[in-house]
Structure formats: C-alpha cells, structure tokens
C-alpha cells in the first residue's frame, strides 16, 4: 500500500470515527390523543369526557344539570351496549370511543368542505381553495 493510499484510508477511518451518529427514528406507531386536555383523573375528568363523548358533545354536557347529564349518559350507555345484555364491555367501550372520534372528524371535514366550496357545486376547484384558504377575492 502506498503512502497516499494509507493516508486516505487513515483519514476516512478518522472521519467515520468522529462523525455524529445518526438519530434513531421512532418506528412505533402511537395512537393519537383522544383529547387536547390533560389526562389527570385526580383533578378532573375533562379528558375522559372528551374521549367518551367527543369534544363538542362534552361541551354541551358541561352546561347540563347533574340530573340532565345522568339521564343523557344513560341513553348513551344504551347505545354503547351493542349486545343489549345490560353491561358495557371493554370492546364495546373502545368501539364507542372510536365512533365518537370518527364522528368528530367527519363533521369537521364536512364543515371544512362547506367553507371551501364557495359556489356550492359539490366540488372544490383550485380557485375556490385559494380564495377560501388565502382570502383572494373572486
């Protein structure tokens, strides 16, 4: 091995040794949070209310009397109990929470669609999107 080759090999080795290691990426898929609120059952149940009812429905429950709230929650529990055996299983509760979250997403998409479909033809053109998003005048 010649001197230039040896120096090249040595410098490449030093470069590799002194280089910063690459960052390790998180390869685990994390479920999205069920609510923007802090999950602390010792303080309040706002997080649970959002997850169980959906954010919009939870806001309406905050304004009800305890009696009205109990009555409406009883109706919701009847909907959650899919097999009508009088008990809510963990799977039924998980399915309900997923349903409540998806319902909120679909309602938000519908709201956004109406806000961007300025001529109400059921389609959103690039011009409509620009106007609704960036405030350009038609």
From TrEMBL:
Main location: endoplasmic reticulum
Subcellular location: Endoplasmic reticulum membrane; Golgi apparatus; Melanosome; Sarcoplasmic reticulum lumen
InterPro entries given in the database record: EF-hand-dom_pair, EF_Hand_1_Ca_BS, EF_hand_dom
Residues in EF-hand domain copies: 68-103
Any one GO molecular-function label of the UniProt entry: calcium ion binding
Cleaved signal peptide residues: 1-18
GO cellular component, one term: extracellular region
Protein keywords: Calcium, Endoplasmic reticulum, Glycoprotein, Golgi apparatus, Membrane, Metal-binding, Repeat, Sarcoplasmic reticulum, Secreted, Signal
Keyword Endoplasmic reticulum: yes
Family in the record: Belongs to the CREC family.
Protein name (database record): CALU protein
Species whose genome carries this gene: Eubucco bourcierii (red-headed barbet)
Taxonomy of the source species: Eukaryota, Metazoa, Chordata, Craniata, Vertebrata
């Amino acid at each position: 091995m010649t001197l230039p080759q040896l120096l090249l090999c040595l410098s490449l080795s030093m470069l590799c040794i002194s280089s910063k290691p690459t960052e390790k990426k998180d390869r685990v898929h994390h479920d999205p949070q069920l609510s923007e609120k802090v999950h602390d059952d010792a303080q309040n149940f706002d997080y649970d209310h959002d997850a169980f009812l959906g954010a919009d429905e939870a806001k309406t429950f905050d304004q009800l009397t305890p009696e009205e709230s109990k009555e409406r929650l009883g109706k919701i529990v009847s909907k959650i109990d899919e097999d009508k055996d009088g008990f809510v299983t963990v799977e039924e509760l998980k399915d309900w929470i997923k349903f409540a979250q998806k319902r909120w997403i679909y309602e938000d998409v519908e709201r956004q669609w109406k806000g961007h479909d300025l001529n109400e033809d059921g389609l959103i053109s690039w011009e409509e999107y620009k106007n609704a998003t960036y405030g350009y005048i038609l």
